[in-house]
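pinned: reference chain
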Amino acid sequence: MVPILFLISFSIHIALLIVTWRLVHQVKTLKNNQPEAIMDIFETYLEEIKAENRKLQSGSPNKQSHLNNTAKQKKKTSAEEHQIQEASNTETTGSAEKVQTEEKNDVESYKSDVSLSFEANVLHLYSQGLTVEEIAKRLNRGKTEVMLTVKFYNENK
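pinned: its structure tokens
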């Protein structure tokens, strides 16, 4: 009976050694492949960022023209305000009140034309329930930039 138990014990030990050797071999393989997997993830991420940067750079002339249009609107508004002030100085008090009302309306319309900051636009659209991708398309910005803005806002709440 004892020889049979030794034979069973010996068989179990051999099986455990084989399993242990295979596990050690798998762990070594995973350790060697892990840096490659991380590098693949980083390369994919960098390609996405490069694509967003190219998109932003190609869209920069539109932003420049938007800035020029905003500057023209400011000059036009200031010229209109100057004309209104001259008119109010030369007219009677009744028409002066009318001119002041028009001036207030012009100033209010100018204030409504002033664009919000990028962060304010992102948070406003996000609060309306839009996704990060939709916000990025509407504002002509990268998804990563929008995602980071929302993430920072949520962390600082």
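why pinned: The first helix runs from residue 2 to 58. Helices lie at 2-58, 60-90, 93-113, 118-127, 132-139, 143-155.
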